[in-house]
């Protein structure tokens, strides 16, 4: 044997040389950046663009009913700014805006945003669509980057700047003409392709737009800085945001907004660093819908804040219902590994993970009980004990998930997962050595049949191994085993030291009555079994109640040595004494199986 480093990576053969590092194209001079030392201590303003950016990216755009379902969902979640479309781009979008107005569906405290390009006829139709909206923001955008200036539009910097300025003037004039006096009107400007644009030019255009709008304390302007295509690491975007935040005039009257896409897979991280860099607002979509790889996922971003003790100011307490509505409306599934919302994100299959989670829940239960003993209600005690759980960044209950799916069993699972699942679904508290024994049985099952073992299947395996069919009728098992306990009568001497037991057993189909004396019921029962010709010795014993009330049952676990073979038995019965007898019979039958 000898030690050596792994073999080196080999050249891929891919044409990487055709690409240029982003910072060789766009320069950022910010040696004294401050954002790395900042913390996010409050939620930003949120704007959902599910009905605009999200909808336009669907293979089959949403119809009116699906759009209305999404709109109502966003309102119920607590969104106060919702971009509902591009009304000048299609009759469908225009009609949807008008339907919300006509139906009185827009709450007084919700601001509706609509998008437009800098063309007079589009601006007029956009403002016409806004008539009757209590709070309306018109969002103007035009692309500034060199690629778009030189290739797409073939316009110079002055011409591109004037597009933004002229569009702003036209929006203000049309709004003054058609909107009601009591309409609360706002304006948003996006220097599209911001991340690829020279910072000094982005600033120049934004300042020119502000010269027209004239922002002040009660006349805010939203300046939205899009990562239209994500092109660099998140720290680069943060530098760009901090640079703009420092250099913009009227900063107190500017709402600095982020609009991240996820082309490099780091949209959430870029948005978080952008907030640290001074941004006030984030635009995005639920579950990351949007063009190409999608917009920043507002669910992930909000629950990241929640996991840090920051109120997200959005209600995600029933995340499965949010997911169901979005999936129905968009005809797109939320992948099972999507942070916080996916089917499997609170689930562990690994044995070591499951064992850690099981121990974590046990420790937390003790801490919560201690706070309840101090006089706190259960709800207050749950909040008073800080969440600290292996492999679970948030409490699944807080987003409407149950604990049943936290641990699931497959071929990678160990004793911890098996014990946890039986504990949560059947209230069984298996002793550690029984956990080890049963996990091996489950392992053999998964190795043979493959796939996942859910709670119902796990119970069926457990019952078939340890319990007679009558004790688990829902498992639909065939009865097996040489012995069956039919009845037992116990009498004790006056000093309670010795017990006389008469037990009725079915042995291979034949009923037998055995009598013995022992130091307690279990000792007497083992002595009685000597009449069957078998040697049984008790090595370990545990018991607990499964429920409370008049129909309560108890579970007993007995580790036995039967003719030199060590194995466990389990018994369940309303009588704790009878359950212990059944546990011994379970071990005896397993030894003879």
What does this protein look like?
The protein is 40% helix and 18% strand. The chain has 593 residues and is α/β, with parallel strands linked by helices.
* Strand fraction: 15-25%
Q: What is the rounded Rg?
A: 34 Å
Q: Report how far apart the termini are.
A: 46 Å
Order of neighbouring strands in the sheet with most strands: 1-2-3-4-5-6-7-8
CATH topology of the largest domain: TIM Barrel
Spell out the CATH superfamily of the largest domain: Aldolase class I
DSSP strand count: 14
Assigned CATH class of the largest domain: Alpha Beta
Determine the number of helices (DSSP H or I, runs of at least 4 residues).
19
**In one word, what is the shape?**
elongated
Main beta sheet: 8 strands, parallel, barrel
| Helical residue percent band | 25-40%
What is the annotated CATH architecture of the largest domain? Alpha-Beta Barrel
User: Structural class, please?
Assistant: alpha/beta
The figure for the number of domains is 3
Low-confidence stretches: none
Mean pLDDT: 92
GO molecular function: 2-isopropylmalate synthase activity; acetyl-CoA C-acetyltransferase activity; magnesium ion binding
Organism: Actinomyces naeslundii
Subunit structure: Homodimer.
GO biological process, one term: L-leucine biosynthetic process
